[in-house]
Records
---
Amino acid sequence: MRAPVGLGADGRRLWRSVAAWLSEHEGGAITLDPHEREILAEACRVADRIAGIRDALDGADLTDAGSIRLLAEERQQRAALASLLVSKLAFPTGMPADVPSKGTTPRSRRAQTAARARWGDQRDEAS
């Protein structure tokens, strides 16, 4: 799977790591449809944007108004990257396999796991 033209170093690195992951799982039988490849390409562009923001922030006064705006944009870009990879492409999140996934979003699965971790012992004691 060839990376799109015009990606920077971080975008190419993300593309290669996803391509390697795809080839390692299910005997390389996992492939991306054309629309999924475009979503991955956009995720790679976001990774390049994040790298550019980090370069701009390198050595900057993080209390400066411009830096604060860049930090906020970096946070938004990281959220966009996570959304593209986990929500749009449905890549695994490392959640335990016993967490039910049918009909739930990655966010709700994380919330369920957190709730079980926090309240599980108290529920057992109440029973």
Note: The chain has four helices and no strands.
---
Amino acid sequence: MYMIVDVWKPNFGKIDNKKCVMSYGLVDTDQFLIEKKTGWKVRYTCDVCCDGKIHTNRGGSLFGVTTKLNTIEKQTCRSCRSRFSEHEIKKTYIPFSKIKKSIEGSNYILINSEEEYMGSNNRSQYKHEIKCENNHNLYDTWNNWSKGKRCRLCYETNKFNNAVKYKNGWERYKFLVWYYTEKSYKKHYKHINPNNLKRGKEYHLDHKYSLYEGFLNNVSPKIVGGYNNLDVITRNENLKKHKSCSISLNELVMYEKVN
């Protein structure tokens, strides 16, 4: 009749006063089709690939009116449903002219051609090669672009410029040092923290040549925040050290020249 193998009815019970399925009992398929029970478990084989494998679904999906891939008349396995979905996506792809107009209308340049886009096996996930007005290269899908995602480098630059715009003196210097410090720590983590100590209550990230002395002596924030000037020490050591330095300015400059 149909590709339904069998149908199983859930038997409920309570555990810690919570209703849950305790077991399943085999029921007559015709009874299932008449009663149209949504919570019953249906085992079926796929009408499309006909590989003979048994798949499981909930009864409710077979009686829905919105789905065309899983009905009483025709059951489709997950693999086949995925292929059909991808086929539908390819049929309803965004025209290249619309993509090009949107990108170039934002003062970006679209590098890849229409032929490359149309020849893609998955146009919905095709990463377009784009160049921003500051000559940065990026690769973006139409989905990300349409959501407003743009050049990451420009975003970070603008974010940085806005952060320092209204800062002056010590506040500006401290911000810049910590900006370069975190970048150095991320890039040279193994060099700075070889023992993988967790920063927080017990361990602090320390500037060997302190921010305070760097500010007084007009040392570049990039140098004070560089990886040669960073070390992970205990909280007590850092509090005891306070504004003092564990290396001299000459040593710091020497480290920078060597590296």
Note: Residues 97 and 114 are 8 Å apart (CA to CA).
